[in-house]
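Hello,

I think I submitted the phosphoenolpyruvate job twice by accident. Can you confirm which output corresponds to this input? Input:
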Amino acid sequence: MSKKIVQSINNGLKGHIQVPGDKSISHRAVMFGAIAKGKTTIEGFLSGEDCLSTISCFKKLGVSIEQSGDRVTVDGRGWDGLSEPTEILNVGNSGTTTRLMLGILATRPFHSVVIGDDSIAKRPMSRVTDPLKAMGAEIDGRENGNYTPLSIRGGQTKGISFTSKVASAQVKSAILLAGLQSEGVTTVTEPALSRDHTERMLEAYGVKVIRDGLTVSVEGSQSLKANHIIVPGDISSAAFFLVAAAIVPNSQVTLTGVGMNPTRSGIIDVLREMGASLTVTNEKVVGGEPIADLAIETSQLRGVEISGEIIPRLIDEIPVIAVLATQANGKTVIKDAEELKVKETNRIDTVVSELTKLGAQVEATEDGMIIHGSQKLTGGEVDSYGDHRIGMAMAVAGLISEGEVLIKRSEAISVSYPTFFEDIMKLTL
Ligand SMILES: O=C(O)C1=C[C@@H](OP(=O)(O)O)[C@@H](O)[C@H](O)C1
Ligand SMILES: C=C(OP(=O)(O)O)C(=O)O
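Support: Only one job matched these inputs. Its output is below.
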């Protein structure tokens, strides 16, 4: 278990950085390359532990994958190129690997066993295993296939028309991936729009995807063609620096090449509504995904309400938005965010407990939290509980705290941002 001490910054954060590649897109680029025919090349791949788990699982499924820094080559031999693994598929800490891979395995005529770490063992899987079973896959695991370890034997599956209770890109993607090799049409409808990287990237891999509002359909018997993917910077990683620059006095930071997919950019809307001084320049589209440079400086902020359809557009940013809200005038109310309870930790509980240790006034509610603003944060000892986003949110809190903030289990940060502390250092030179 490693510990990290973070101290307040006196002269502000200054300069520019390029945040690492998008985690959601990096996972998908490897997985889709693995089932495509031909050599897929990926630039800007995130070498975080979650994406490395995806590479490791697909290697065990017989796919040849080479990685050199942020460049990855996947030698896909089509859907039939996947073979029965002789080893257990270990997804580590990654929910995305677990759920999307189950969607792919659901139509493969062989047996696999999927395990992950202690956090994965607590995350609900029946949201994907139930519909995949209804399509015809054989899946079992603790509590009837809700928790890992899971065993799956794929086979001949039939298309499904599925209405999801949660706005989850992992659920949507798993079912669509199974649908690509099922009989007939597969349709997924979600209650609010979740991130649409799967839909965009499948099209780039030559798949026909039909989108109609909150409904997405694919026909069966579809194959993928190898592709060249350029991964944008991860807006969920950028979020820590957007917040840090907004609240650390005398800061002026530019983040280059950040993914600005509208299904992910809720943090930008919130920062603007809170009054942050934020400029978006150099907007372009790279490989079907919008990107831009984001310049932000220290700002006077006001509390806001964050609820409804914006929640899936900023779900992973809520821990650091809570830190932001401690520095705003007035209170910030976050609602409709029950999904936080089933992430790497129960992020309602961990955000509230750890910010409270630093002297913030935060209350947990059934579906979110209330953060009281203009709080001076004290130093203290906090825990990431093995959750990368909690670890980084606490580090951002440390940048404005009066005393030192010691973060326990800080190693979790390398799940999505292995160079996080180096990037903070770059902005303090
Ligand atoms: O599809 C993805 O890449 C992700 C979807 C989201 O999860 P849900 O699908 O569970 O909402 C998000 O929280 C996760 O970090 C990545
Ligand atoms: C929830 C997250 O990821 P996953 O579901 O892939 O574990 C996250 O990165 O915040």
